[in-house]
Specification:
Layout: H1 15-30, H2 35-44, H3 48-58, H4 63-70, H5 72-87, H6 91-127, H7 129-139, H8 144-148, H9 151-178, H10 187-196, H11 202-213, H12 219-231, H13 235-264, H14 266-292
Helix pairs in contact: 1-2, 1-6, 2-3, 3-4, 4-5, 5-6, 5-10, 5-11, 6-9, 6-13, 7-14, 9-14, 10-11, 10-13, 12-13
């Protein structure tokens, strides 16, 4: 089973909703309910993912493959489920850890989206400033629309429209770069910790994780594993602590990106929006005055 990007148009499942279902599943498993029975209880409660898993199980498939096919956060849960099944790791503990990781990642994305809301709204309002100026000129008694029909006005209209389009695309690109990704920071450390909790050796855990998901340990995870070997400390706790630290770092970095976006949005404002304002707002008014004022000797 390999991590892959979904090609359909369905939106990815919400990480917070996935975390809630995973938490419930972990509680059922910890209560001694078998995995198949736990999925059926959740399906009876109306959960769509649990119903899909039960259908796959009835068809002779596995829960891991059904979860992976759901995409988004469920894909990552499917990878962890596959790894835990191979090494015999306790599913309840593994799922609790992943539910916490999903909630942390979701909270980080919410923090960034909240911080981005104000600069995004400001950018959208400013982007309409040239057209507002055009309407304001008409309201003041000028005839900017007739002026735009002249050759000089057509040049203003085309150039201003291109600048507004450039502003829109530039702003979208800046906002997109500030948006957080859908992946869980430290996922490799979390999955390797699940494999190690099954009692296998570190080389075996790395092999199982690579085979099940294609995930390779990052430099930070490799460093933690080396520390565990040299110090004789439990790798599972070290890996989970490292994953939590990475999620916190990603959360802080996202907030900083969102905070700096306000300053970066001034670039399209100065380079594109203000010239577009002059071309579409001030230019037609001047042309209207020149065309309606008779020349006197």
């Amino acid at each position: 089973m390999r991590l892959r990007r979904r090609t359909d148009a369905a939106p990815p499942p919400d990480a917070a909703a996935v975390a809630t279902v995973v938490q419930r599943l972990a509680v059922l498993l910890q209560a001694g309910i078998a995995p198949t029975a736990a999925w059926r209880h959740l399906a009876d409660a109306g959960d769509d993912t649990a119903a899909a898993v039960c259908e796959r199980l009835d068809a002779g498939g596995t829960a891991a493959s059904a979860l992976t096919d759901r995409g988004g956060a469920w894909q990552q849960i499917g990878v962890a489920w596959q790894v835990a099944s191979v090494v015999g790791a306790p599913l309840a503990v593994s799922l609790r850890g992943l539910a916490e990781a999903l909630r942390d990642a979701h909270q980080a994305r919410d923090d960034v989206r909240t911080a981005l809301a104000e600069p995004q709204t400001t950018a959208r309002l400013i982007a309409w400033l040239p057209l507002v100026a055009l309407g304001l000129g008409a309201a003041l008694g000028f005839d900017p629309f007739s002026a735009l029909a002249t050759p000089a006005g057509a040049v203003c209209l085309i150039a201003g429209g291109l600048l507004m389009l450039a502003t829109h695309r530039w702003t979208r690109a800046l906002v997109a770069r500030a948006q957080p990704g859908q992946e869980i920071p430290g996922l490799d450390a979390e999955v390797i910790a699940i494999a190690l909790s099954g009692g296998v050796s570190i080389p075996r855990a790395l092999d199982v994780v690579s085979t099940a998901s294609g995930i390779e340990p990052t430099a930070g995870t490799t460093s933690v594993l080396a520390l565990s070997r040299s110090a004789g400390a439990p790798a599972v706790e070290l890996l989970r602590a490292d994953a939590a630290a990475r999620r916190q770092a990603a959360r802080t970095e996202g907030r900083l990106r969102a905070a700096s976006l306000s300053g970066r949005l001034l670039l399209p404002l100065g380079v594109c929006t203000l010239p577009a304002f002059l071309l579409l707002g001030v230019g037609p008014m001047l042309l209207s005055v020149l065309t309606t004022t008779p020349l006197t000797l």
